[in-house]
Amino acid sequence: MSIGAEDLGGALLWVAIGLGVLLGIAALAVWAARRRGSTTIVLDATAAVARVWIAFVGLAAVFVMWRWLGGGTTWIPELPVTMAWPTALPCEQPVPPESVGTTLECASVQVVDATIANLPVATRAVLALGDLLSLALAAMPAVAVAVICHQALKGLPFGRAAGRMLMLTAVVVLVAGMGTELATSIGRSLAAGAVLPGPESGADVTTTGIFRLTVPLWPIGAALALAALGTVFRHGAVLQRETEGLV
Questions:
Q1: DSSP H helical segments within 37-103, as ranges?
Q2: What is the pLDDT of residue 126?
Q3: How far is CA 93 from CA 101, 106, 108, 233, in A?
Q4: Which of 103, 158, 176, 243 could form a disulfide with 137 if both were Cys (CB 3.0 to 4.6 A apart)?
Q5: Is residue 82 within a helix (H) or strand (E), and if so which, with residue range?
Q6: Which helix (H) or strand (E) holds 176?
Q7: Rounded CA gap, 204 and 107, in Å?
Q8: Measured on CA atoms in the order 236, 226, 60, 22, is the torsion positive or negative?
Q9: Which own/partner pairs from 146-151 qualify as long-range (CB within 8 Å, at least 24 positions apart)?
């Protein structure tokens, strides 16, 4: 989630409002559970927040499909470009001259936010894939939490469904976590190439001439942790069945 405002106080206020909405949903779920006389208030509230989060992600997915596949004009952030800084800076000097106070010594422009009309369908599809993978990455933990809470409320905290869901979440986090940045990087480079000349043209603003791809490594660690947790749940399911057989 990205929030922008003209001043820091305004930006922090919007962050507080967003967090307040989530806390309000959780408080409402706790109140409803207490009114029903539930003895599993924490599980009920957590499951309710997870379901609301999944619903929000579903609405976001509809917006993403409309945005990228609806045609017309599209705003694309961080389009990779190459362009000269508007003022002369001593970037090429081995030793910058003595400066008094805070001074900008060197700078370059590597990305811009651009609005593009009639972007090729293939490029739109790649960018849409990046956004959808990002939403899948955001939704899967909530889905896993909802399933685990549901199993726990049924009296099966280590049921097979919980272990399988954790394993599925591990796979989705690995694929979507790495695929989001990869698809987005490729899509932005393709979009830049569709509307800007190459660096050999000598124009003021050109493409970089290379594909700068970002492949994060954190999804590997997160997937391993989730897979280990899924294995623990599966082992717990075996122990639970053995214990029930002894009773």
A1: 41-69
A2: 93
A3: 19, 10, 15, 60
A4: 176
A5: strand 73-83
A6: helix 160-195
A7: 16
A8: positive
A9: 146/47, 146/50, 146/51, 146/54, 149/43, 149/44, 149/46, 149/47, 149/50, 150/47
How do residues 168-191 score in pLDDT, each as one tens digit?
A: 999 999 999 999 999 999 999 999
CA distance 112 to 205: 10
- Confidence at residue 237, expressed as pLDDT on a 0 to 100 scale: 65
Spatial separation of the C-alpha atoms in residues 186 and 183, rounded to whole Å: 5
Both tokens of 175, joined, read 């694929």
> CA–CA separation, 213 vs 94, rounded Å?
30
The amino acid sitting at 211 is F
Q: Give the integer Cα–Cα distance in Å for 89 and 96.
A: 10
CA distance 27 to 41: 11
CB neighbourhood size of 241 (10 A): 12
| CA 2 distance to own-chain centroid | 10
Mean of pLDDT values over 46-53: 86
Pairwise CA distance, residues 216 & 204, whole Å: 32
Q: Dihedral angle at the C-alpha atoms of 94, 99, 102, 107, nearest 10 degrees?
A: -30
> Token match 């990087």: residue?
185
CB 135 within 8 A of CB 177: no
Between CA 168 and CA 234 the distance in angstroms is 13
CA distance 78 to 184: 10
